[in-house]
Design a protein that fits this description.
The protein is α+β, with helices and mostly antiparallel strands. The chain folds into 2 domains: 105 residues, Ribosome-recycling factor (Topoisomerase I, Chain A, domain 4); 68 residues, Gyrase A, domain 2, CATH 3.30.1360.40. Helices cover 59% and strands 15% of the residues. The chain contains 4 helices and 6 strands. The strands form 2 sheets. The protein has a 4-stranded antiparallel beta sheet with strand order 3-4-6-5, with helices on one face. Helix 1 packs antiparallel against helix 3 and helix 1 packs parallel to helix 4.
């Protein structure tokens, strides 16, 4: 009985860790004034009828702090890539010279920076909700095990262990958000 509970707790901790990884991934997509290939992570290109991530049909690199260079692996993919960037509505205007697509990332205004901070806080809140949902499922499992015969003091220790993991995960969310906010607000 206790081994099953331990495996459920371990899988719950893994879910919390995955929530943190997902938050970190989503925060990397939020631009903070500098050009980053991750900014184009949500762009999908029509590649021979299949919706394909841009990174699988072209090489994306930084040429400098404000410019991205997109080198398609096939020349005829330039037009579909440009169309996909426009349709993604990222606020960029791609320019091509027939072989390479260049994107110049405009500097952020103060108003836009504040909007991005608000967006990152929303992402952080989503991560916290996912962590709390996992906590609730784990606590329900522990209570069910106690009802089915697990020692009550062991159940309380397991609940405290779960809460400790939740507190650590929520602290990490706060640290990620603080770091991203400083990055965004830095002029």
């Amino acid at each position: 009985m206790s081994e099953d509970l331990d495996s459920v707790l371990v899988s719950g901790y893994e879910l919390m860790h995955k929530s943190l990884e997902h938050l970190n991934e989503e925060l990397s997509k939020v631009r903070a004034g500098k050009a980053s290939p991750a900014m184009l992570g949500s762009v999908f290109v029509d590649y021979y009828g299949a919706n394909t991530p841009l990174s699988q049909v072209a090489n994306i690199t930084n040429t400098d702090a404000r410019t991205l260079s997109i080198q398609p692996w096939e020349k005829k993919m330039i037009a579909p890539i440009e169309r996909a960037i426009f349709e993604a509505n990222l606020g960029f205007t791609p320019m091509n010279n027939g072989e390479v697509i260049m994107i110049t990332v405009p500097p952020l205004t103060e108003e836009r920076r504040q909007l991005l901070v608000k967006q990152t806080k929303g992402l952080g809140e989503d991560a916290k909700v996912a962590i709390r949902t996992t906590r609730q499922k784990l606590m329900d499992t522990i209570k069910k095990e106690v009802k089915d015969g697990l020692a009550e003091d062991l159940g309380k220790r397991k609940e405290a262990e779960v809460q400790k993991h939740v507190d650590e995960a929520v602290d990490m969310v706060g640290k990620y958000l603080d770091a991203k906010e400083k990055d965004i607000m830095k002029v």
